[in-house]
Each structure stands twice: as structure tokens, then as C-alpha cells.
């Protein structure tokens, strides 16, 4: 008998269970569910939920998606694909792997990419150690929900020294259904020693429908592995979006992540990273744009648990209309993590009087020989910059847009592909029009 | 072309321009000289439409249009150009993109079509050469990290590209060494034409050795207190600005 779930979330796990789950997985799901029902709902009294209310989310009464949507044709992706962006492609529709829309072609030897559900059908044992490998005790309420409802997602496994020659694009496409639905994809990424890849994760929708995505990605980078990771959250403006990202890094590995957040009416992103080996590097860049009716909430938890690692957290925000954003960044340097280097920055450009930003960078440092810094700014467009552009014949609206794109450019330029940079710059520009 | 009559302007409660008159005809080059703080930049800003000044009396018309009614971009589109005393750095705003946006806005206002990419690039390269500027400038952000001299040359480069009817150069010479000054002056002289007027604002006479003005005005305490030919600039060079106080006190 299952324990009852919180009101408003009781149908998140209601999918009939037809997935080929091994016993150990069923047990994990049950355990997650039991822990969930024992945990209170996140509340504004919890530090991590101080600025973000769950009320709107609970009111929707989302229900789990019970069957895959099979009616999509490859042409349906025409408006979604980025012209000129050449990549291996995995498509998930409403959280379910869609092989007929995915294009993997000839992957290099030693690279395995596929749907989680399929993988569990033919090689479940390989995932036993991977699932939940990254999370330690930082498991959030919604990550537990994701585990309790675990069903499908993306699995990427690169053997020792394997390099993906092209980016791997994960398109998470949501298509509105008759009633508000929640998808809970689980993505597992494992790079063995020295492996290298670029992963581009895109959350998009057909139409402006109401749905919820509660995604979790776990990434393990073994020694010397290199992962470039770009996340584009461009969900429907009526959608709810939750992401739990969990990364562990072994010695000398490098992770560079760029987070772009433009979509959803309510989005909560938790980025949790942990160094397990020395001389590793973790770069987290972000750009968010929140306008009318939007709340974009970012929580970073960066743990320097061992010495000699470097991290950089650099998030920039554009706030327009009545948009709201939250940046809660925490860097923890534990007692033994000498020679840690961490630099955190959060800069915001407020484009209206009604917009709101709550920013809270925190450094918790228990080691004595470290180099750590943090800084926050909340500012407006400089009038003299605006005047300079206008004095050259450029009208005020375009001048403002150019300055905002200039501000955002520092992050957009970190994207690895020209077509991708154009795609994002155009999307940002449109939102500022 | 430009007619300024009895112009008075405040910053906050403080009156800076105190009844200023100036007539500039087509093709004329007027130098405005004056001590620091006399209101030279204020005049440039008021004419180009910068916020923060309130005009309390007088008028400024440009080709028959009331300048003071217009937005800054409308003035630029009519053919007014200001070379800034302190050009503004625009981090992240790509120079090529900026130049294209500016040129196209102005061409559109003149009823011309947008330039295609090839002609645009050709035009830009031609103008860069005049100012001895390197192509690499195009990939950089506008003025960001430019040296003082580069910034000033970049202003004249923009002027060469936008081909205004009236250019106001606000202390374009200040902070330039003699070689840079020569390059800037050559750039300006190359743009002189019977249709293009210029107001050259300067503190020193030096620039006027290279850019020969038709008229010289002395601006002090918010008014033009003397006007004459280029010999007036030489007189100022010899006497300095000290005599002004004496004259105004008299
Ligand atoms: N924004 C401002 N706020 C207060 N005073 C100003 C401002 N701009 C100019 N002024 C004052 O106006 C006077 C004229 O300044 P300005 O036009 O810059 O002189 P110039 O360019 O001739 O050196 C100076 O006394 C200066 O202090
Ligand atoms: Mg001045």
C-alpha cells in the first residue's frame, strides 16, 4: 500500500507501471516514495524556498503522462530544429524517448547513447550504480519525486578516452494534452576517464500549452573527462519547469555549463556540483530573462570537498515588465579543501520598475588557504550609453535592445556553436522587442 | 542651416547657457573656443538632445525644423552628428553591428535602401583607411578598451560613415598627441564640402592650425562674447583666457 502524497501532487505518480523495471529499481522507487510522503512540502520558511511559492504549481493538479505520444512526424520538428546546428540528436516527447525522431547515426566506438527505458530493458545492471550516484544528501523534494516516478530519459555513456566528434543534442519536446500533465525525465550521463563530449539540452514546446517538466540529470565525470554542457530552458510561457542537476567530478576533470533560461511561467533550477578529486574545474555560466508573469529561480550548490579545485559561477539576468528572478548561489569550501579557487558573480539589469530580483550569493569557507570571491550587482541601463546610440540615429527601443544584448552577450558567447549563439541572441532580442 | 537664438539652458537649478546666439550657414566651419566650464559641452548636448538639460528660453532650428522638439535619433536622422568629448564605452555591443544599425537608420530616414553586406563592408573599410584605423576594430565592442586616441578617431570614423550635414566636434583634439591630431584633422578636412557645416569646439588653438575655421567664437559663462575670423584664435592663443574675466567684470 502506497503512502499518500501531498495535496496537489497526488497524481504525479499515477502512471500505470508498464516499464521493464528490475527489482532493485522498483525498490528504489518505492523507497523514494516513502521518503517523500514523510517529508513536508517545501515552504517559504525553508531557506531554499524563501522567495518562491509552490501555490501556482499545486493548483494545476498535474497528472503523470500515462502513454507515449506517437503521432509526431519528423516534420513536426521543423520549427524546433536550429538550422546549421549539426549534432547527434535524441528527442524526448513529453518525457518519453522518441527513437523515430532521434538521429544518432554512427556514434564513435565506445559511445553509447539511448533512452533510459530501453536501456533498463536490455542492460539494467549497468545503471544500478549510476542512478543516484551523484546526489549525496543534497537530494531535493522534487528530485525525490523524479526518482519515485522514474520511467524514461536519456542515457549517455562514454568509455575511456572516447570523444564525441559532434555535439549531442537532447531535445525535450512538450506537446500539450487535454489536461495538464507532468513529465519527469531522468537523464544519466557518465564519462569514463579522459572521455570528452558536448551536450546541448533544450527544453521546448509545440504551442504555448500548460504542462510541467520535472527533470533530473546526474553527471559523473571520471578523471580527465571533459564535458561542455549547454541547457536552454525555452519552455512554453504557460509551463512549469523544474530541474535538478547533480554533478560529481573526479581528479582533473573539467565541466563547463551554460544555462539559458527564457521560458516557462515558473521555473526552478537546482544546480549541485561536487569535486571528488583534486585539480578539477567547474564553470557555471547563466543567463536568464524574466518578463511579465514569469518567475525564474536558480539555486547553485557548489561543493569544494577536496583541495586544489577551481569553480566559477557567473550568472546574469535581464528583468522586464513584472518579471521576477531569484539567484541563490552557495559555494561551500570544506576544511580540507585548501587552495580552492571560487569566484561567484550575479549581475542583473532591471528594465522596469516593477521587476524584482532576489539575489543571495553565499560563500561558506572552512579552509584557510583559499581564493574566493563573490559579487552582486543590480542596475539599470546607463543613460549615457542609450544617448550615445540614439545620437547615431538608432531609435530608443532598438538602442535598449542592443545594450541588453550586449549585456547578455558575455554569456551567449560562451555557447560553442555559431548557429546556437544566433538562435539564443534572436530569442533574447525577440523577448525585448 | 543652424540658427540658435537667445538659448538659455539649465542643469537642475543652475543656468549654464545664458542667452546664446549662433548662426551657421551651409559649408561653414565655426570654431567655438572658451575656458573649461564655459558651457561648450552643454551647448553640444542641448543641440544633440541629451537628457538632463532644460531649455528655459530661446530657440534652435536646423534646416527650418525646431531641433528642441525632436528626439536625439530624429536629429541624427536629419543629419546632425556629435563627436563626443568623452566617447562612451558599450561593452558587449559589437562595432560592426552598431555601425550597420546606425547607417541603416540614417539611410532609411533619407529614403535610401539598406546597404547589402558587401557594399557595407567595402564602405567601412574605405572609411577606416582614412582614419588609419585597423580592421580589427570591427570585431571589438564599441569603444570598449579603446585608447583615448582610438576613441577620438572612432568618432571621426563614424562621422565619415554617416555623412552628416552638420557635425559638432566637442574637443576632439583633447588628449591627442600631434600625430593622432594630424590624422583626425585630415579625416575632418576630407569631409569638408560646400554642403557640410561643422562646429569645432576646442579649448586650444592648436587644432585650428590643421582645421581652418571660417569663423571663431569665444564662449564664456554661457554666452558668445566675441566673434571674428581665424585671427581671433591666434589672439586667444597669445592672451589666454584671463582677459575674459576682466572684460566681463568691466
Ligand atoms: N550634469 C551636470 N550637473 C551639474 N553641473 C553641470 C553638469 N554638466 C555641466 N555642468 C556645469 O556646467 C558648466 C559648463 O560645463 P560644460 O558645458 O561641460 O563646460 P565645457 O565643456 O565648456 O568645459 C560647468 O560649470 C559644469 O560644472
Ligand atoms: Mg566640454
Notes on the structure:
The complex is a heterodimer of chains A (433) and B (250). Chain A is α/β, with parallel strands linked by helices and 433 residues long. Chain A is 18% helix and 38% strand. In chain A, the strands form 2 sheets. In chain A, strands 1, 4, 5, 7, 8, 10, 12, 14, 16, 18 and 20 form an 11-stranded mixed beta sheet that branches. In chain A, helix 1 packs antiparallel against helix 5, helix 6 packs across helix 7 and helix 7 runs antiparallel to helix 8. Chain B is 38% helix and 26% strand. In chain B, the strands form 2 sheets. Chain B has a 6-stranded mixed beta sheet with strand order 6-7-8-3-9-10, with helices on both faces. In chain B, strand 9 and strand 10 form a beta hairpin. The radius of gyration of chain B is 18 Å and the shape is globular. The chains are: A alpha/beta (433), B alpha/beta (250). Chains A and B meet through helix 6 and helix 7 of A and helix 2 and helix 3 of B. The site of magnesium ion has 5 residues of chain B, from helix 1.
Helical residue percent of chain A?
10-25%
Domain module count of chain B: 1
Fourth CATH level, the homologous superfamily of chain B: P-loop containing nucleotide triphosphate hydrolases
What class would the helix/strand composition of chain A place it in? alpha/beta
Shape of chain B: globular
Structural class of chain B: alpha/beta
CATH class of chain B: Alpha Beta
Low-pLDDT regions of chain A: none
Strand content of chain B: 25-35%
For the biggest sheet of chain B, the summary is: 6 strands, mixed
Radius of gyration of chain A, in angstroms, nearest whole number: 21 Å
Per the principal axes of the C-alpha atoms, what is the gross shape of chain A? globular
Query: Approximately how much beta-strand content do the residues of chain A carry?
Result: 35-45%
Q: Tell me the span between the first and last alpha carbons of chain B.
A: 35 Å
Largest contact between chains: A-B, 24 and 32 residues
Domain SUF system FeS cluster assembly SufBD core (chain A): 181-407
Protein name (chain A): Fe-S cluster assembly protein SufD
Pfam families (chain A): SUFBD_core, SufBD_N
Organism (chain A): Allochromatium humboldtianum
